[in-house]
Design brief:
The structure holds 2 protein chains of 2 kinds. Chain A is about 50% helix and about 15% strand. By secondary structure, chain A is α/β, with parallel strands linked by helices. In chain A, the strands form 2 sheets. In chain A, strands 2-1-3-4 form a 4-stranded parallel sheet, with helices on both faces. In chain A, strands 6-5-7-8 form a 4-stranded parallel sheet, sandwiched between helices. In chain A, α5 packs antiparallel against α6, α7 packs across α9 and α11 packs across α12. The longest helix of chain A is centred in the C-terminal third of the chain and has 17 residues.
Chain lengths: ~250, ~450
């Protein structure tokens, strides 16, 4: 399978380990992986703040870039940015662009959904010793319907124990610009999440979006917690029975 | 408004009692809702059917409202049309005066809150007494409801005990039964002397001219049956085509709202009493109010806002509402549904902060019994805020997004800028982030740098 990586700007600049791990994983499973360096941001910050014109111009760019790739699938280590590509159609009125947006959406997949649903793989041969918990990032969960895929993948990680949070599906308060527009509300939401993570006695909280991980990880570290925030791809690419990968 | 949401949200966050009360109540309702859902074999199917009924009605609203009017009048009711809040209040005030009403009781009605009916009637010397326990508490406290279904959700038992001790002159007690009994005693007296009752409407059936009111305390039953005159106030969106349509809505509303399989009372009212020996009011006036609703009919996207059956499930599910409660929204309609309905009803200029009062997590859409895509409407309203320059961000925000789009369209420039930030360590002011959270630093080697250095595969697409 020929895959083109949609890295997302956050993973590219803040969490490259997630994207590097995704490339290694996909290659390990026999995919050919390409990356078009012209890609930057999908436009979600503009779209979510109401700047449709700016979002539309970035959407057009990304549609053209991925159309030129000739890949069978576009895969991203982010549920949120994948969901944004799935929203592209509504940015356009003219039928040509709507069709192109729809076609892009049809072949764009979030990483865990791609592994489980397209490649049919649940055991990627990962090893990671420790107690883990999964935080459902909202857009992956509710826009794309990804709930079981990451959990199935994590249950097959050797040495790892998956613990469920009572509020796994509750928003961590990131919400893009929401986190800085209403920071006090955002952090109040975040603290309920972080309290639950600490009560669960885990070594790491795992999620599929760099945004949530920066929010949760940033608060964990501010509170002096030893719980690490890891991207799903990092855990799945880990081959160490002990210690696990290092966040950065 | 923008400044006030921010300020009021922070005030709410600092109120430990409020947050405790909210957490307890929203958790309880969410849990009860989940349990009640399990008793419906095909919940998804019921949601789809209900939404289809609402969509059909809203598409032909004029026809169904006319049909409702004809049938309600045939059964003896008088139907009045009100374009806006002022007209609705004027109509109700005039009815009260014509009927010589001195004592007015009122059951729970969000529409009446929306038009500040009590305040308007007070100017005519009429002071309705709220008879729903939650509304009664809020009225005694001189406050406004903070939840669509649970008006006093923001108050703890201890606060209510203190309020009753002060206002009703009873001894301080935190026993719920004692408190409820004190309210009942005070309210029964008011019911006995009332000559006019004002209620809301949950559903208005076009086919029969019937109105349906759901409640748990029996106060709406008394309000609509004891006084000589009953005035029912409803928004234009309350109409449904057929009596049989109630079946699906009765499955959805109590379960979504309070986690009940059915409310304790369902009052179906068709016209006035037929014979002198019958019970019930001699006169029924139904006030059908637009007040900004018809504006939402313009597009399919905004029209869905009118499908709302006011169950409040989205409030209980919303992680933002759960932290700050209803008052911070500065509207009678708080929470996710309030954030989409308020700007559409009362104008974007006064409530431009509300579409942003959400992390867009989508929990509201998941629980909505009529599948309103609240996040999509929020995004639509945000685009309108930007288009009309109604937001608080101003020129600086517009400039920032223009610059962002320009940089992101130029990958080399983007990379240069990031590298500059990384090496010089100059960051934009991010105190709104760093005051509470550590900021993960930019990676020493971005993915694209690592790709170029060691990951590129010449055979790849």
């Amino acid at each position: 399978m020929r895959v083109s990586l949609f890295v997302t700007c956050l993973a590219d600049q803040f969490w490259p380990a997630a994207a590097v791990s995704a490339v290694e994983l996909l290659r390990g499973l026999g995919c050919t992986v390409g990356f078009d360096e012209r890609q930057t941001c999908c436009g979600q910050p503009a779209f979510n703040t109401g700047y449709r014109r700016e979002a539309r111009s970035l959407a057009r760019r990304l549609i053209e870039i991925f159309e030129s790739s000739g890949a069978d699938a576009i895969v991203s280590p982010s549920g949120s940015c994948t969901a944004m590509l799935h929203h592209y159609e509504q940015l356009f009125e003219d039928e040509d662009w709507r069709t192109r947006a729809r076609q892009l959406a049809q072949r764009t997949h979030e990483l865990s959904a791609f592994l489980v649903n397209c490649l049919g793989v649940e055991d990627v041969g990962a090893a990671f010793s420790g107690r883990l918990t999964w935080h459902d990032a909202c857009h992956g969960l509710r826009d794309l319907g990804i709930r079981n895929e990451p959990r199935r993948l994590l249950r097959h990680v050797k040495g790892a124990e998956l613990v469920e949070l009572p509020n796994a599906e509750t928003c961590c308060g990131f919400g893009g610009t929401f986190a800085v527009k209403y920071p006090e509300v955002s952090v109040a939401m975040l603290d309920e999440k972080v309290d639950a993570i600490e009560r669960a006695g885990v070594d790491a909280v795992v999620s599929g979006d760099a945004g949530c991980l920066m929010q949760i990880g940033g608060r964990l570290s501010r509170r002096g917690s030893s719980v690490r925030a890891l991207h799903l791809a990092e855990v799945l690419a880990s081959r160490e029975a002990r210690g696990g990968p290092h966040g950065r | 408004m923008a400044a006030s949401f921010d300020r009021d949200a922070r005030t709410a966050l600092a109120d430990g009692q409020l947050r405790g009360a909210l957490r307890q109540a929203t958790d309880l309702f969410a849990e009860r809702r989940r349990a009640a859902l399990a008793t419906v074999p095909d919940w998804e199917g019921a949601r789809d059917r209900a939404r289809a009924i609402k969509d059909e009605t809203l598409l032909h609203l004029d026809r169904y409202l006319e049909q409702f009017t004809t049938n309600a009048e045939r059964a003896g009711a008088r139907v009045h049309w009100a374009r806006d809040a002022a007209e609705a209040c004027e109509i109700i005030g005039r009815i009260a005066e014509q009927r010589g009403a001195r004592s007015v009781v009122k059951s729970k009605s969000m529409a009446s809150e929306e038009i500040h009916l009590n305040e308007r009637l007070a100017r005519r010397g009429i002071e309705p007494v709220e008879t729903d326990l939650g509304e009664y508490i809020v009225q005694l406290a001189g406050e406004t409801p903070s939840h669509i279904v649970v008006p006093a959700i923001h108050k703890t038992k201890a606060q209510i005990a203190a309020l009753f001790a002060e206002k009703l002159g009873i001894e301080l007690s935190d026993d719920v039964a004692t408190l409820a009994a004190a309210a009942r005693q005070a309210l029964r007296r008011r019911f006995a002397e009332a000559d006019l009752g004002i209620s809301g409407v949950n559903f208005a059936v076009a086919e029969t001219g019937t109105i349906l009111i759901l409640e748990n305390e029996g106060n709406a039953r008394l309000t609509t049956s004891l006084p000589r005159t009953h005035v029912a106030l409803m928004g234009i969106e309350k109409v449904i085509p057929r009596f049989a349509d109630l079946e699906v809505f009765l499955q959805l509303l109590p379960r979504s709202g309070t986690g009940q399989v059915l409310t304790a009372y369902q009052s179906l009212i068709t016209g006035t009493k037929r014979r002198p020996e019958d019970e019930g009011p001699e006169q029924l006036d139904i006030v059908v109010m637009d007040n900004g609703r018809s504006r939402m009919l313009a597009s399919a996207l905004t029209r869905q806002s009118l499908a709302c059956i006011r169950c409040g499930a989205c409030l209980n599910a919303c992680p933002v509402y759960r932290q700050i409660g209803g008052h911070a929204y500065g509207s009678v309609y708080p929470g996710p549904i309030g954030a989409i309905v308020t700007p559409q009803l009362f104008g974007l200029a006064q409530s431009s902060a509300l579409p942003y009062a959400s992390s867009l997590c989508g929990a509201c859409r998941d629980v909505c019994p009529v599948k309103i895509d609240i996040p999509a409407v929020l995004l639509h309203l945000r685009a309108q805020v930007v288009e009309r320059r109604a937001g608080s961000g101003g020129a600086l925000e517009r400039l920032a997004f223009s610059a962002y789009a320009a940089v992101m369209a130029r990958p080399r420039l983007f990379e240069c800028l990031v590298r500059g930030v990384r090496t010089l360590g100059i960051l934009p002011p991010l105190r709104a982030w760093t005051k509470w959270r550590d900021l993960r630093p930019l990676a020493p080697h971005s993915f694209r740098e690592q790709w170029r250095a060691r990951l590129r595969d010449p055979a790849a697409p």
